[in-house]
Amino acid sequence: MSRIRVRPELLGLVLLTTTALTLTTPPPLAAAQPLAAQPAARSATATAAFTVEEQRLDRAVPQEILRRSGFDAVAPDFVRSLRGADSYAEAERAVVRSGARLWQRAVDRAQGRGPARGDLSRDDDRPLYWARLALTRELRQWQPEFGLSESARTALLGKLERSSRGQDSMDFPARGAAKGVKRIVLTGFDPFTLDRDIRISNPSGATALALDGTVIRTADGPARIEAAVFPVRWGDFADGTVEQALRGPLSRADLFTTVSQGRVGRIDVERFNGAWRGGFGDNENVSETGLVPVTDPASQPQWTTTSLPYRSIVAAGTGRFPVYDNTSVTEIPAGGTAPVVRPDGPTPGSAARAGGGGDYLSNEIAYRATLLRDRLGLDIPGGHVHTPVLQFGAGNTDPATGTVTDPEFVQNRLDIIAQLRTIITVAAEAS
């Protein structure tokens, strides 16, 4: 498997070799903002220490999103918590507590609890994303008096990531403890393709915030949803973040669905997931091409299959967007050398080059979650759903002149969230 860092101006070349969906695999990234639009630069030393994601934080749009949501106060509060830590153990407690508070604050805001603290709509997932980066950046440059090795700092950053994404708070009672209540696991993603349009929101992340901890009513009784959000970074997936977060919850769940943003104007239930990384740059502008790296690669299948009740989902009237059972894949047939598109799924012995959900991280989280289902021997429905692309309103599509939000943008996101809630209800009832 190859791993390279891709400059934004070269990403178009990467796309020429990609076999993913036109819009599931994101479009080429545009050049960065002109210098006149950039904030005053930090020192070269400080900037070099920050990640690519963290370096975007000082641009005007992220700062506006933080200010207009009230999340601009999160980082200063975190700094004060760190200053009160006199040992690694105290720092660890401060980090986990701050991360969990950030996640819960975002969930509460999305679900209408407490003051909105700003004029951005409550359904907006972007304040969580940018506030998390503000925290990781502060932690990355913190120099406590008790001394902090790089390995210890890395461990703290991992705890901050997991706690601020809801990954370590997907708690269900043991099977049989809450009789009659189904357990549903749902995952979403961070915004991505931020160098193309830094205003971007991800409706899958917004759905995770809107539904985390909620109970939906089905014809068979109540069902509780536990949700988390994942990064758009190849490296985190290779390090096992999906399996680490989902192994426990899936073992206690009755249903799961991974969710990401897909095509314009439609929802897809992805039938097949492929074991292939297609190379598009992630949020760190890193490219990965090759087999999806998993433990025990000797037993790794080329394909996994959804066990969601796709026929019932497609047949139900769930909302304004049409829903499709997507069976298309790209494979190298057994004995062949060139990729072939198969509209009806993979053929025996073929090598994956793109699942129904493409060859980007949306396909990979679906592949990893369904492979985990199979390796744990779980007989539960689960798979991937692609939302429509979240679009800005007419007249607000140019990132160079557009605003960070508009009424149509908000309504599109609300409609997607509502339709995903209905799809999950249908899936729970059909299962």
TrEMBL record:
<feature type="region of interest" description="Disordered">
    <location>
        <begin position="335"/>
        <end position="356"/>
    </location>
</feature>
<protein>
    <recommendedName>
        <fullName>Pyroglutamyl peptidase</fullName>
    </recommendedName>
</protein>
<dbReference type="InterPro" id="IPR036440">
    <property type="entry name" value="Peptidase_C15-like_sf"/>
</dbReference>
<keyword id="KW-0732">Signal</keyword>
<feature type="signal peptide">
    <location>
        <begin position="1"/>
        <end position="30"/>
    </location>
</feature>
